[in-house]
Specification:
single chain; 0% strand; globular; 33% helix; 54 residues
């Protein structure tokens, strides 16, 4: 059995759900101090297409 991923419900995603607005979660493995550069690489996106938030 594979490790399940925990995806937190943020105020933003909670609002989207409550309003019935479609969205897609993009999940990747966390790396300490990886920031936007790691997020972009993990998602296969250009660095400037990613904004890493808390």
């Amino acid at each position: 059995m594979g490790k399940s991923r925990h995806v937190s419900l943020t105020p933003a995603t909670q609002y989207l759900r409550e309003q019935g607005i479609a969205y897609t979660e993009h999940v990747y493995d966390y790396i300490d101090h990886g920031g936007a550069a790691w997020g972009a690489q993990a998602l296969g996106l250009p660095l400037h297409a990613v904004v890493k938030t808390l």
